[in-house]
Design goal:
single chain, mainly alpha, about 0% strand
Amino acid sequence: MLSAALTGNKIERAVAVFDYGWTEEQAKGLLDSLNLTGGEPNWKPEHLQKLREWCSVHDKDCETVEGQLDFIAYEILDVYEGIGMALKRAKTVEDAKAAAAPFVKRLQSSE
């Protein structure tokens, strides 16, 4: 789903998430909140399992930022629709971070 090549550069990742209809501010707020770097994210075990399963079904690599972003976009647009709608209403990066915060908190491991 992502059309931009991902090299670890947040700007390129932000361009990639435009495929999901988010503005630059929305994408930046989401990406800043997620802080994805590739490899296994520091998420709760149940979310890591969901990531692995989703990526396996969709022929994605769960340890790449691209695979993780595709999974997150699916989650926000199809599972946690309220968060997705709040993100779409965000006008600033800070608004987007605030909209994404409940989703990010749900994912992150406290360890």
